[in-house]
Amino acid sequence: MFNIATHMDFEGQGRAEKLSRVIITLFGAVGLIWGYIIQQFSQTVYILIAGVLLASILTIPPWPIYRRKPLNWQKPRPEPQPTAGGTETESAKKKKK
């Protein structure tokens, strides 16, 4: 029905994590300074919560910026077919050991 991407590549995950840390740290520092200036710790908490919400909106969904370098996975190997007599081949026996 819909073709919605639900993944990020490895570099996108790193970019999202770094961006979220920067946003939360920045909002935390600004909130701490502002809360100290007006002597209201609640303002610090509100600003920090706003930063967490902004970071969540920007980094949790798999936006196209986080899907620029997808991995090319190898095709799976076909499973060996059993022989007609029902006995295993020598290579199959070695793999089980």
TrEMBL record:
Its main location: endoplasmic reticulum. GO terms for biological process: protein targeting to ER; signal peptide processing. GO terms for cellular component: signal peptidase complex. It is a multi-pass membrane protein. Belongs to the SPCS1 family. It comes from Aedes aegypti. It is found in: Endoplasmic reticulum membrane. Keywords: Endoplasmic reticulum, Membrane, Transmembrane, Transmembrane helix. Component of the signal peptidase complex (SPC) which catalyzes the cleavage of N-terminal signal sequences from nascent proteins as they are translocated into the lumen of the endoplasmic reticulum. Dispensable for SPC enzymatic activity. It comes from the Eukaryota. InterPro entries: Spc1/SPCS1. This is Signal peptidase complex subunit 1.
